[in-house]
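retry 2 of 3: previous attempt timed out while embedding NAP. Reduced batch size to 1 and resubmitted. Inputs unchanged:
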Amino acid sequence: MVKVAVVGATGYTGEELVELLLRNPEVEITSLTGIVEKESDFSLLYPRFGKKISLICKNLDVAEVAKKSDIVFLALPHTVSMKFAPEFLKKGKKVIDLSADYRLPSDVYEKWYGTKHVDADNLKTAVYGLPELNRKNIKSAAFVANPGCFPTSVILGLLPVIKTVSQKDKAIIVDSKTGVTGAGRKGLVSLSFGELDENLRAYKVNEHQHMPEMKHILSGVSGKDIKLNFVPHLMPIRRGIFSTIYISSEGLDSAEKIYEAYKDTYKNEPFVRLRPMGSMPELSDVRGTNFCDIGIKLAGGMLVIVAVIDNLVKGASGQAVQNMNIMYGLDERLGLV
Ligand SMILES: NC(=O)c1ccc[n+]([C@@H]2O[C@H](COP(=O)([O-])OP(=O)(O)OC[C@H]3O[C@@H](n4cnc5c(N)ncnc54)[C@H](OP(=O)(O)O)[C@@H]3O)[C@@H](O)[C@H]2O)c1
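retry 2 succeeded.
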């Protein structure tokens, strides 16, 4: 049995981790921590876990958590993770960090997250945890940087074609829509029911902190400097990411060849499903699952790609569990649907 700790268990991704880890027969959850006024049973904070888990949710004590666990999931805000990751790694624990702290080179991180990176050593060794791209490296990793939610959908949507895209001066256009849990469990007026219900808004147009992550990874895969326009939107739903990607079809292969590239890239992937040519996936197809569903269509001078995921599962905690399974040589589907 793998002994697992969830740090940040009181947040949205932490809660989702508990749900998924309870379904994994090779795992024992041994520690749950958050920032709590009074340490109490986790099922008092989240009654839906009553009779499923009996553990006190404690404030974080690194030595105590490390003593009880083989692997630690850090479901913490960025800047907080990089304070704790080095401590757990020093104690010989495996770590999967769900924050953005270890996904980018330090200069790019500092520019986009507006804060100094304080753990250059572990940044060098962190493996970007997108199994469809990095499975071999994840297998032998002690430290995994779990990808962002928007980047997971966009990178998976583009992987099969990115090497053949010749952009000239044109950028790839990415229009993504997210549910409100993507912002975490914080109480902001802009995220409240009254502001969101029956509404739709674009935000951080070409300024979202996930844009450099997509560019960094896709440029690495393609060997070219990939240009992106990224416009995120907030939808009045709890969970889900719906990314529509537009690429000029000028210079691209035929529709049949492009579709073959998608089929070939994902034929052995347990959590990527390709729709028939021209058929588009919907959010309800993936909600609550670890799947990324992809549809493509070549029409009107454009290759249009739609990639959908559940932000809390394939976009965060599900992918983190998939990575853990790979790190321990387990069936990577364990605990995941
Ligand atoms: N939400 C998503 O869809 C999603 C997707 C991909 C990646 N991520 C990333 O995953 C991480 C967690 O996201 P989330 O949505 O779960 O956020 P969240 O709901 O705000 O939860 C954050 C957790 O961290 C704890 N925490 C905050 N500051 C802390 C500190 N100084 N020391 C110890 N614990 C602290 C919080 O405790 P309290 O609640 O008890 O204060 C809570 O348990 C973030 O870095 C986020 O960017 C999120």
